[in-house]
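Trying the structure run again after the queue cleared.
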Amino acid sequence: MIIDDLFNIHSGAPPSLHVDSPLRPILHAAFASLIMYSPERAAHAEMNDVTVFLRESVGRILSETPVGQKPPTAAACGILKQWADCIRSKFTTDNVHLINPQSRDHAVSKSFVNVIQQMGMQYSALTTTITELRSEVKALQSSFTTLQSQVHT
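Done. Tokens:
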């Protein structure tokens, strides 16, 4: 869905680019390459139009914001960074034999450690988000109870 939004793939687009079509893997590779270095591009204000459009596409999908409305992009920045880190780890693992065949085992174990650390950070971020959401729900429940009692009095 995000690839379709980002690359404007719709019912009128060439069928060879739709899901499960022969050229769809090209869109996956293009998407991965856009994400892989997006944090660096954003930090150096390079390809700003692409960076903004990528953030908005991810933000739109995450927030289910309709096309035409400006989606929130703060969460998208964090997600893009996490995705970029994962894609780079996968890229390094898949290509270590090309870079230095003798260090393959070391690079693979280092990459594995990086992935586990990233998962830990994602878990921690999700735990924090869940805690914040629980607090918000409690506050809303309290407000609702207060309003309910005011209405019945």
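Residues 2-152 form one domain. Worth checking whether this holds up in the mutant runs.
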